[in-house]
Design a protein that fits this description.
The complex is a heterodimer of chains A (about 180) and B (about 160). Chain A has a single domain (about 5-175), classed as Phosphatidylinositol 3-kinase Catalytic Subunit, Chain A, domain 1 (Ubiquitin-like (UB roll)). Helices cover about 15% and strands about 30% of the residues of chain A. Chain A has helices at about 30-35, 85, 120-130, 135; strands at about 5-10, 20, 45-50, 65, 90, 95-105, 105-110, 140-145, 165-175. In chain A, the strands form two sheets. Chain A has a five-stranded mixed β-sheet with strand order 4-7-6-9-8, covered by helices on one side. Chain A has a four-stranded mixed β-sheet with strand order 2-1-5-3. The longest helix of chain A is centred in the last third of the chain and has 11 residues, at about 120-130. The radius of gyration of chain A is 18 Å and the shape is elongated. Chain B starts with a helix and ends with a strand. Chain B is built from six helices and seven strands. Chain B has about 160 residues and is α+β, with helices and mostly antiparallel strands. Chain B has helices spanning about 5-10, 15-25, 100-105, 120-125, 130-135, 145-155; strands at about 25-30, 45-50, 60-65, 75-80, 85, 95, 160-164. In chain B, the strands form two sheets. A five-stranded antiparallel β-sheet of chain B has the order 1-2-3-4-5. In chain B, strands 6-7 form a two-stranded antiparallel sheet. Classes of the chains: A alpha/beta (about 180), B alpha+beta (about 160). The interface of A and B includes residues 87, 88, 134, 135 and 149 of A.
Amino acid sequence: MDAPEIDLFIHAYGANPRIVGAKPGEILRDVLIRIAVIDEGPSGALVFVGECEEALAEADGIENGADNHVPVDLALTIEVLELHRHRHVHIHRCRHVAVDVNFMGKTKHHRFSPATTVGTVAAWARKKFHLDSAAGADYVLQLCNSTDRPRPDNHLGELTSPEKCAVCFDLVKEVTPQG
Amino acid sequence: MDSPAQRLFEEDVQSVPFRSGVFKRLWGMDDPESLPVQPSWPIRAFWLSAAARPNCPTRFYLQLDLTGYRSAAPTGTFWDPATKAILELSKRPKGRPDSRVARVFRTDWNAGTAFYHPYDRVAATGHPDWLTQDPHRVWNSNLTIVDYLTEFHSLLNNGDYIGI
């Protein structure tokens, strides 16, 4: 009997994330070619699996840190890559996304994996700016020079073009409903 | 035949953001024990996971009226699947005094039948000043059930959530 398909969550810049079914024995490259997110020839695309949370373990004193999240070998199978556990597959040309977060006149920097969620960046920023867990939870990320507040599940790679590889945020406080 | 609003909702619950939240056990609609059958459209029931607090559930249920989805905001509140009625006020999640959590989950407004939040249709209709006070949280047709669930999941996992 055939093994059941696993639903993969495919993320890439410039497109809404989508769900693709894949058999455990399928080669990841074949899956990505089948859905036309990479070409058969060399594409320069980097493919990350899972959502990276490395920055949350970064020591307080580190400035300008960088994630080690390594792009995967596309010749491996869905099963070997443990995609039943990771689910998320992120395709991007940026090895890292350089993030600046501004708060109270100070800026913190980190080079994140493109497969990092905005929620993880917000948690990292709250830690870096020493906002305690209760008071800090109301602080969220807003794109610089805009009023856009990306949802916590958005991947950084969905927010930056392959030419730019950078995102700037302000850390802002949610409004408490009044009246 | 399904209405356009219902079809749009069904598309949204098949999207990556919704399915990813289910996979992470942040929320869901599928709970054979407590939510064996979904109510008739435009009502839908959901569960949301909550931060652990002593002697408190780690899952709360919502029943929402999704009339006009997505043009119109949802409205609703906490639900008790055991009694098939709105959750008793004494069993509602509470927030630290004067916190955002306490304000949104207040039960001394509108008899506790809606959330005191701009994403709630009833609350927003009664507070036109919120359009200028908090323009980031004004419901619009680009928002989905995922934005709604993300917001309320965040409140149930906020450090200011103190239990029931």
